[in-house]
Amino acid sequence: MKRSYSLKALFWLHCQILHFALTLTASPQDTGNPMEPVEKNPLATSSQETSEQPTFHVSKGLDPDGSLVRNYRRGLEFAVDYFGNYGPYHVYLLGPGNEQDIKDIFRERASTRAIPGITQSEAEQVEAFLKQPNILSEIAAVIAGESTGGLTWSSPQWRVYEDVTTNATERTKDPVENTSGAIHEYHHVFQIAHCDPSQERSSDRNLNSWMLEGMATYSAALFTERLGLSDFKQYMRDLRTSGANIGRPGINEFLAEAQNPQLDNEAYWDEGPYPQVYYMLGAWATAYLIHVHGINETTVLKDWYFDVPTLGKSVAFAKHMKITLKEFYQAFDTFIRQSDEAVMKIFTDA
């Protein structure tokens, strides 16, 4: 299921929130018993690492000097080294130009998704994929030079991850965001490999939006600084005051305007101008776990996910974060309502 909320330069490939939102409906707070593991769904994950390297598909004439792929690759390689190599992963950097080339790339994309050994032949699967309304819309967007993008993936029967950007010419204008966007999307690949994205995000088999988007936003900001390209602390402050590169309302505006704001409320995708709070508020929730609650960075960004397929979200979170989700939501709500000066101290007092 796609979403297309326009946000301010949201990592370029999140210029509109697409693909990644499979089930974004209003839901009650998590009520699962944190002491009872959920039954593992055998089709829930594709959690094995692969030796297959990420594959780039670039429109003809789009990247004459190689800088587009080079700046994307520096972020992707950092992320793969940190999270592990999951895939197959295909990166589509597309743009208007040669219409036949664009159609050829989409046909190649269809063939990578074809499931071997089923009744429907590969050729039939390819043609069916190319006739899907969303794929026809994507092809039209590329030809028209429209900016959309995001992560998508195929079924667990034949799991393929794809980062599709329909107007990658925009990404060449900001090499740093191109790099941070690559990190952000690959963190999602790792996350999806360790949950069941077919379930609602409030489900114990899936991950809440603040976990998915917020932790990926935090890792992109942190790792971009480690690459010597940005100021992590300034970025975290900007998320509160201006919305940084994501767009208004920032955290301070959101907390002042929203009715009874709650971190695990999945309805913000559909209600009001707030879908970006999952990125911003989620990044600060991640920072709280690491810098206030004292959980190791790799535990928060990586290790706890490995237990989600077998234990479920609630148990895995409590096991690794040493706090239940309910307790965490209460503690974080108190923390995030403090002044900018008070919350920024977590990065200097640790």
Q: How do you describe this structure in short?
A:
With 350 residues, the protein is mainly alpha-helical.
Structure characteristics:
single chain; 350 residues; mainly alpha; 2 domains; 4-stranded mixed β-sheet; 15 helices; 46% helix; globular; disordered N terminus
How does the helix and strand content classify structurally?
mainly alpha
Stretches where pLDDT is under 50 for at least 5 consecutive residues are 1-45
Number of strands: 4
What Rg is obtained from the alpha carbons, in whole angstroms? Answer: 20 Å
Question: What value does the average pLDDT take?
Answer: 86
Helix-strand string: EHEHHHEEHHHHHHHHHHH
Please tell me the total number of domains.
2
- How do the strands line up in the largest sheet? 1-2-4-3
Helix content bin? 40-55%
Q: How large a portion of the residues is in β-strands, by DSSP E?
A: 5-15%
Largest β sheet strand count, sense and barrel closure: 4 strands, mixed
Q: How far from one another are the termini?
A: 41 Å
Number of helices: 15
Envelope shape: globular
